[in-house]
Amino acid sequence: MIPVGFEYARPDSVDGALALLAEHGDDASVMAGGHSLLPVMKLRLAAPEMIIDISRLRELSHIDVDGDEVVIGAGTRHRVVESSEVLAAEAPLLAAVARTVGDPQVRHRGTIGGSLAHADPASALPAAVLAQGGSVVLRSPRGERTVPITEFYTGMFSTLKEPDELITDIRVPRTGSAGWAYEKFVRRANDWAIVAVAVIDDRVGLVNMGATPLRAHATEAALARGASIAEAAALADQDTDPSADLTATREYRRHLARVLTRRALTTARG
Amino acid sequence: MSIMGTRVVRNEDPVFLSRGATYTDDLTDDRLTGALHLTLVRSPLAHARITSVDVEEARSAPGVVAVVTGGDIDLEPPLLFPMAAKGMVRPWLATEKVRFVGEPVVAVLTEQAYQGQDAADLVEIDYDPLPAVVDLRAAASDEVLVFEDVGTNTTNGFGLDEEFDEHLFDDCEVVVTREIVNQRLAACALETRAASAVWGEDGRVTLWCSTQNAQNARDEVAGWLGVDAEQVHVIAPDVGGGFGAKIGADPEFALVCWLAKHTSRPVRWNESRSENMTGMLHGRAQLQTVTIGGNRDGDVLAYRIDVLADAGAYPRLGVVLPMFTRMMAPGVYDIPKVESRARVVATTTTSTGAYRGAGRPEATAAIERAMDLFAAEIGKDPAEVRRRNLVAADKFPFTTKGGAVYDSGEYVRALDQVLEAGGYAELRAEQARRRERGDPVQLGLGVSVFVEITGGGAFSEDAAVEVHPDGTVTVLTGTSPHGQGHATAWAMLASEQLGIPMEKITVKHGDTDLIPRGGGTMGSRSLQTGGVAVYQAAGELVELAKQRAADILEADVDDLVVADGAVQVRGTDSGITLAQLAEREQLKVDSNFDSGAPSFPFGAHLAVVEVDIESGKAVVDRIVTIDDAGPVLNPLLAHGQRHGGIAQGIAQALLEEVVYDADGNPLTATFADYAFPSAAELPSFELIEMETPTHLNSLGVKGIGEAGTIGATPAVQSAVVDAVSHLGVRHIDMPTSPLRVWEAINAAAGSTE
Amino acid sequence: MSTVKIEMTVNGEATSADVEGRLLLAHYLRDVVGLKATNIGCDTTSCGACTVLLDGESVKSCTVLAVQADQQSVTTMEGLSPDPEHLHPVAAAFRAEHGLQCGFCTPGMVMAAVSLLEQNPTPTEREVREGLEGNLCRCTGYHNIVRAVLAASGQSGDKVHEDETEHAPAGGLAGAPGFSAGSDA
Question: Which CATH architecture has domain A7-52?
Answer without folding.
Answer: 2-Layer Sandwich (3.30)
